[in-house]
Specification:
By secondary structure, the protein is of the alpha/beta class. 46% of the residues lie in helices and 15% in strands.
Length: 215
């Protein structure tokens, strides 16, 4: 019998494999979170991670989720942040490092958690905590080849490349074993988001998606 937890993990991994780019938004302000998600979707990016480093993040989560967009919350450090994010509409949680209490809160809420790790030991700990995927951060520290190295002891492990990923190297990370990649300032520069320049966001998302071969 398949457990609800196993279903959550399997569904999240399948969704990431089919749609392997997550836009990570950090901005001093977001004039319209739903419009931002629409601009990204027009460019081929359908996963959007808002972060606790952005003011009023739960308001943005609520607005985007209410409009039907696939949104999650990142830089989650505590169970309280995890719970607030889920209440606001986050469909997934992302941590910068190993956060057991966030993993437990995600399990209790029935949402997938993408836990941050870097070393092989941390990767194993993230798996033990029930991560839907393991975010290797900062990915630029070791480069795409590191993902191939990790696939030796951890075959088929869902890895997400985050930190220093751009249109010039995203495809290489995917080719070397990353299940998905995070697009940060290359797609959603803080100043462009704050200005509400959705056409520019779409243009950048299109370029990133094309570079990844997903558009």
């Amino acid at each position: 019998m398949t457990s609800p937890r196993s279903t959550v993990l399997t569904d999240a991994r399948a969704a990431l494999a089919a749609d392997p780019v997550i836009a990570v938004v950090r901005a001093p302000r977001i004039p319209d979170a739903a419009a931002l998600c629409a601009a990204l979707a027009a460019g081929g990016i359908h996963w959007v991670e808002f972060t606790y480093t952005t003011p009023d993040v739960t308001d943005h989560l609520h607005a985007a989720a209410a409009a039907g967009w696939r949104v999650g919350v990142g830089t989650v450090l505590t169970a309280e942040q995890a719970e607030r994010g889920v209440e606001a509409g986050a469909g997934f949680l992302v941590t910068p490092g190993l956060r057991p209490e966030v993993a437990a809160a995600a399990h209790a809420a029935g949402v997938p958690a993408v836990l941050g790790a870097l070393t092989p030991t941390e990767v194993a700990q993230a798996v033990d905590l029930g991560a839907a995927a393991v975010k290797i951060f900062p990915a630029k520290a070791f480069g795409p080849g590191y993902f191939k190295d990790l696939s030796g002891p951890y075959p088929d492990l869902p890895l997400v490349a985050s930190g220093g990923v751009n249109a010039g190297n995203a495809a290489e990370f995917l080719a070397h074993g990353a299940l998905a990649v995070c697009a940060g300032t290359d797609v959603v520069p803080p100043a462009v988001v704050a200005a509400g320049d959705w056409d520019e966001i779409t243009r950048r998302a299109l370029a990133f998606s094309a570079a990844c071969g997903t558009r």
